[in-house]
Amino acid sequence: MDVNHDRVTSAPFEDCSGRGVRILVVDSGVDGTHPMLAETSIAHYAVERGVNDAEAQVVAVASHDPIGHGTAVASIIRRLVPNAELSSVAVLGRKNRGTTENLFVALDWAASQGFDVVNVSLGTTYLSLLPKFKERLDRLYLAGCIVVSACSNLDPDIVEYPAHFTSVISVEQAKLATLALERTSRLVEFRASGVDVFAAWRDGKMVSVTGSSFAAPHVSAIVARMKERHPHWNATEIKAALYALVSPSPSPMPV
């Protein structure tokens, strides 16, 4: 049973805006023409298969999001860290579905490109893929990429990857203030604002969204603020700082 409800905001980093931090949104793509994102420079990519079903690879594409999900995630990040450098890689299609192989291609590419923060608002419950996930997440860890992942909306205890890896900063939704965090006693270690969040959507719309998918970008923004202040911190140091932020002990918060 989850009994820990320590809560705090990320106030020690409130003067940070993500400047110099590279964030990758792994999702359904991003509509860069949306009014909320139109003045943001976003690099757009997608995982696509070559001619005759050749091996999938990441390619540069035009701004596009057939669903709206990735646009919502990017708009939350943009609002909270306006000076971060945003990139998007689309791994989901029109029915909000994608293959795990496409996700693997995106994660391999992210590690090779040196992103600071990788936001993954999706996952899989296929445990047979655990070794392949571990290989890629280890590579991201060694490359200094901080992976922030959403968990299952049905139940945070449902084993889902990448959220349930301990090297990943995993997030579930809660009705909290924008930059508030709660710590849990689960492998999904943090709760963040993910209930009735105002965000961009496709076709220029603004919508109210709920789910761990929209809690994760709040934590990605907090992590980006930390990386601006401490660019050499790895995932272990970032997670320790997050724990310190929500610790009930009188020890000083990181600065």
Write up what this structure looks like:
The structure is a single chain. It is globular and about 50 Å long. It is 27% helix and 22% strand. Helix 1 (69-80) packs parallel to helix 4 and helix 2 (100-113) packs parallel to helix 3. It has helices at residues 69-80, 100-113, 130-142, 212-229, 235-245; strands at residues 7-9, 22-27, 42-48, 57-60, 85-90, 117-120, 146-150, 169-174, 180-183, 190-193, 197-200, 206-209. The chain is α/β, with parallel strands linked by helices. The chain has a single domain (7-245), classed as Rossmann fold (3-Layer(aba) Sandwich), CATH 3.40.50. The two termini are 33 Å apart. A ten-stranded mixed sheet has the order 1-9-10-8-7-6-2-5-3-4, sandwiched between helices. The protein has a two-stranded antiparallel sheet with strand order 11-12. It is built from five helices and twelve strands.
